[in-house]
Every structure is written in structure tokens, then in C-alpha cells.
Amino acid sequence: MIEVRNLTKKYGDHFAIQDISFSLEKGKIYGLLGPNGAGKSTTMNIMTGYIAATSGEVIIEGHDIFKEAEEAKKHIGYLPEIPPLYMDMTVWEYLFTVADLKGVPKSERKSMIGDVMEKVMLTNMKDRLIKNLSKGYKQRVGIAQTLIGNPDIIILDEPTVGLDPKQIIEIRTLIKRLGEDHTVLISSHILSEIGAVCDHVVIINKGHLVVSDSTENLEKLFKGQDILCLSAQGELEKIQNILREFPALSIADMKEAEEAETYRFQLKVQDQADYRKQLFFRFAEAGIPLLEISRAGMSLEDIFLEITEEGRA
Ligand SMILES: Nc1ncnc2c1ncn2[C@@H]1O[C@H](COP(=O)(O)OP(=O)(O)OP(=O)(O)O)[C@@H](O)[C@H]1O
């Protein structure tokens, strides 16, 4: 349905994105995830024909977004990072203008706008000036304009940014509902957002694609990687030597605690075994008190940090 092939965008000598490929299938909700500056907006702006790529292709329902822009654009509704709203219009006037610009036949405009407002729960705001709406409602108007013309694919760039927690939940619920009738692509730099809403995650970092997989697979893939938190009081070298005796444990992080000679470790457990007892007895034998030892599974948040910080998949 949408194929992104070897997309590259260069600004001067700087690659905003490099050789990105992924595809979107019908009827799923996709999350484009990456830290600030990763290249999410650039990717979306190219996919929707707002800016040209340096090289690569975007094929939407068989149409190249650059070579057959008009045909390709009919299939997509796009909400850029900064919503293109006319603040001095009412909700109704604005959606009417969008319908006009998108070439919706006059006879269909009224009912289409009515349906869209119903879908995003804006009907009771229809005569309100956009500038007088709350941020959450403004965002709904932004989403409403993507739905005019009933495109198959809805692309939303950071749709919950700047909203309060209640508005975030409302917009997420709305996105889920849109996923029933449309293929949806949303971008975010917050993993929990994507985990809560999306079936599939595409992660980019520093302009490169790192992972494209189902949310479920990603969780499974990293499930084996348990984390063990351990605080020990003693000589650092001795503590590290003991930890080295356990080949399945690797040190992911180490911090010196405020208390003298106390070190807090985060250990990655490679084989899913529970090493707490063995560690307890081994440290006791060495006369090094353990002040804390606990297990924690890897959350999607940890996976994201690991992938984006270390560039590993
Ligand atoms: N018009 C431009 N001119 C020069 N560099 C640009 C331009 N637009 C984007 N970039 C650079 O390209 C890279 C990717 O930017 P992009 O806005 O796509 O990232 P992003 O993942 O959307 O980040 P954010 O969440 O902060 O919007 C960044 O290094 C950015 O500075």
C-alpha cells in the first residue's frame, strides 16, 4: 500500500535521513519512532510530497509521490508537526475550505464535513473560532482536515505533542478509532505512546532505520534480556571480579552511591536465569555486603533507549 524505498535526504553535506526503506500495509497503525532530530518529520514530509527526496522512492497505492503527485496525494491525509489551521475561521468554515481545496464535489461537502466532525467529536464546536479552541480541540481540527476526502492513509506528525495528559488520552483513543477504517502512521519520540497505540513500530535514529517490526515481536525479542539491579559495599575491583565469575551477567551501568564504597550496578542477564541467590552467597563469602538485589524485565522504554543510544538492534 505504501512503499518507502531507499529514501535519502541531504541538506548540504548533512544526511537528514539515509537509505530508509519500509512498507505500510493496509489497516494497521504504524508508529515512526525516534529521538528528536532522528529524521521523522523529514521522512513524513517526503512521504506526503511536501519536500523532495535527494534519492529514493515513495510509492502510494502504485503511484510515485514525486512523479504522479496528484494521484498519490488523493490517498493520504497529512497532519504536519505544525497544523495548518486558519485561526480566524470557525471549525465549519475551515473544514469547508479544506474540502474545497481537496476538490470534494460540492454536493458531497456538507455530509462529508458532518461525518468527519462526528468521527473526531467536534460537532458541538462547529461554530467556534479555531483560535478560541483548546489545544486538544485544535488538534482534533487538525486531524479532521486529514479525513476530508476520505483518504485510505492518515499520517500524523507528533499528534500529541504539547497536549495535557487528558487530551493525550483522548487523541490516542481517537487514533485507535481511526485505525479501524484507515492505515495510520504516527510519529513520536515517546515510546509508551507508540506501544499504547501501534501494531507496528519503525524506529529511526540519526537518519538511519534501526528496526521495523511488530510491537509484539519487539517485546518478545527483548524479553529474554532481564535486568538485575545490585548494590554492593566494598572495594570496586573486588566487586567487579566477583561479577566476572558469572559469564551470563554483563554490566550495563555502574554508579557510585552517596554512601562510601557503595556501587550500584545494572546487570544484563543473558540467559533468563535467576542469579540472586548465587550472588548473595558469593558476595557473603567474600565479606562484601549486598545492600540491594532485585530483578526487572526490560520495558519497551528500555528497548528503545538501548536501540537508539547504542545503535544496536
Ligand atoms: N530544512 C532543513 N535544513 C537543514 N537541516 C535540516 C532541515 N530540516 C531538518 N534538518 C535536519 O535533519 C535532521 C532530521 O530532522 P527532522 O526534523 O526530520 O527530525 P525529527 O525526528 O522530526 O525531530 P523532531 O522530533 O525534533 O522534529 C536534523 O538533524 C535536522 O537538523
UniProtKB/TrEMBL annotation:
InterPro entries found in the cross-reference section: AAA+_ATPase (IPR003593), ABC_transporter-like_ATP-bd (IPR003439), P-loop_NTPase (IPR027417)
One Gene Ontology MF term: ATP hydrolysis activity
Pfam entry (one): ABC_tran
Source species, domain of life: Bacteria
Stored PROSITE patterns: ABC_TRANSPORTER_2 (PS50893)
EC number: 3.6.3.-
Alphabetized UniProt keyword annotations: ATP-binding, Hydrolase, Nucleotide-binding, Transport
Residue ranges annotated for the ABC transporter domain, each copy included: 2-231
Residues of the signal peptide: none
Keyword Hydrolase: yes
PANTHER family for the chain: ABC TRANSPORTER, ATP-BINDING PROTEIN
Family note: Belongs to the ABC transporter superfamily.
Name the UniProt record assigns to this protein: Putative ABC transporter ATP-binding protein YxlF
Organism: Blautia obeum
